[in-house]
Write a structure and sequence with these properties.
heterodimer; A: about 240 residues; alpha/beta; six-stranded mixed beta sheet; 10 strands; about 25% strand; B: alpha+beta; 2 domains; two-stranded antiparallel ribbon; 12 strands; about 55% helix; about 15% strand; binds adenosine-5'-triphosphate; binds magnesium ion
Chain lengths: ~240, ~425
Amino acid sequence: MTATTHGRPLVAARGVTRILPAAVPVTLVHDIDLEVTGGEAVAVTGPSGSGKSSLLYLLGLLDRPTRGRVEVDGRDTASLSSDDLARLRLERLGFVFQFHFLLPEFSALDNLLIPMRRLARLDEDAMRARAEDLLDSLGLLSLKDKRPDQLSGGEAQRVAIARALANDPAVLLTDEPTGNLDSRNSAAVFDIFQRLARDEGRAVVVVTHDLALAARADRRVELVDGTIVSDSRQG
Amino acid sequence: MPLVLRIALTHLRARTRQTLVSLLGVATGVGFSIAMAALMQGSQLDFINKIIDATPHITVKDEFRHPDEQPAARRFPDAAVAIVGAKPTEELRGIKGARRKLAILEDQPDLAVSPVLRGQVVIRYFGKDEAAAIAGIEPDRHRRVSQLAGDIREGRLDDLHAAANGLIVGDGLARKLGAKLGDTVTVSSPVGVVFKMKIVALFHTGVISLDEGEVYALLKKVQVLQDRQNVINRLYVKTGDVYGAFARARDIEARFGYLAESWDEANQDILEALQVRNVIMYTVVAAILLVAGMGIFNVVSTITFEKLRDIAILKSMGFSERDIRWIFVLQGLIAGTAGSILGWGLGFGLCRIMEGIEFKVRFATEMTQLPLYYSPWHYLIATVFAVTAAALAAFFPARRAARVDPVEIIRGAA
Ligand SMILES: Nc1ncnc2c1ncn2[C@@H]1O[C@H](COP(=O)(O)OP(=O)(O)OP(=O)(O)O)[C@@H](O)[C@H]1O
Ligand SMILES: [Mg+2]
């Protein structure tokens, strides 16, 4: 990621509403306007059930809005096919969830290599070198041959972060990434996100209910009942 | 190795035991299909060869395919004519101009022809009577058309010339009469002529109706015995191309007007029975492969359910629905292919075992083996069917897996 992405809107929700069709329709989020630019780390907070995860899935093109639109790199994604959306996720987006979701049969290194091989933008040697660099930058190089069940929770979560970065995404979307970590590990992970935004020009969205952590972010967005009730720059 | 293949293999390895069971299912299906095809085709070819050996390729008879119309029906072609009390003429026809027709056929280089007079006789030996069909033959011509000379176990075909009234009988008939080589039997024809004839040779074809019901003598003698001087009522024809016999028979029939039947037309009912047998075989094979397919469906389904999280995360990473579908269809293809290769070994092994089995057919004196026919086609066809069935069986769980909504899984896991 180069500095040129700093300040550019990389992912945006424009008037996004998502209603689950049912006998009694459920509104997950309502009329959300949110733009995240390169270099920005946004903490999304709010009470349980306020629609934080729902918003993240919409921004990450895993779900489609009922009304409004989601833009990636300034491009509307509404008209794209599910294959096109998959392609965008592969090239531009990275996810980290509360649960690490590493593939259990593959080593830490292989877990990083899987999205890289799917994209196949680099040759095998370059992919390995990049994967090892990523693991190294997160202090995980010595664990590269370990399988997920041989890693601690904090280690696994850091491998998941490395994997989310494997294809050098413009946007990093994370949902309670520190939910299973103690406060020391949480702070460390959060600092990584800050660095990925500030130093590498990525747009980072961190959903969390940990207000102390949220306070460390550049910008804080608060959701209540599926709508944004406050959006403030801080720090 | 392609990425989706690697992931597919990893999933299978996580379910080794179930994968092996499904693989064995395919191997069994393929193995038995191969063994059965070898046995079926082997016995069919064996059977057809027996028919071809035992009967002339083409038989020209002194009959017509369509019986003559009654004169009344010819007179009133548009009327409904009922003929009451019509009696067939007693005329014993024979083939008119048989010698000339014989010469015409013999002019064709790929044909061998034997003129024959067939009739019925009763053979008596020490108070035992047996009815038989007698064929009057010219040994030198007949030798080139039929296997008779080769089927003779005692005596020789040429011994017909040596004795004054030589007779060749099947070993079955000889046993029923209690007669043996060199014995003299009494042969009487329907027209009342009675000959004393000496058994100069015994034959054995393995076809009971022939061994117990056919006898041979010189054409001239049979013409006298049947009181039909110079009459020939059959022309037995051997062609260079067995499977072209049907078309050839049609040509001959068109030319001479007489009924000309090829071996396959004459044995139509038996050949149809063989077809029915093939249908049964294919049904059994299809059933086995269906079971094999269910095994694969089972293992791939199980894996898709176990791997819902992996599917969700792969999709969130940017794997498309097609990628996910491929991962699981590949698992079916891998199990199908590996199972097929195992099945080749099993099928070949079964064939070798069957080949080793020796048994005695009723009344037979010598040991028989199962006739097996080896063909790479059996292996190829069984594999194509098995792999297709496997891919199909994997396709449905794969499609369902590809449609999994990652949001649902990720929410559920949190
Ligand atoms: N499939 C569904 N059917 C019905 N209601 C749903 C469904 N998915 C989500 N919801 C509801 O939508 C609302 C928003 O859910 P969402 O998961 O986005 O909240 P959240 O802010 O992430 O909560 P938490 O902090 O507990 O993770 C909740 O009230 C939830 O119960
Ligand atoms: Mg949530």
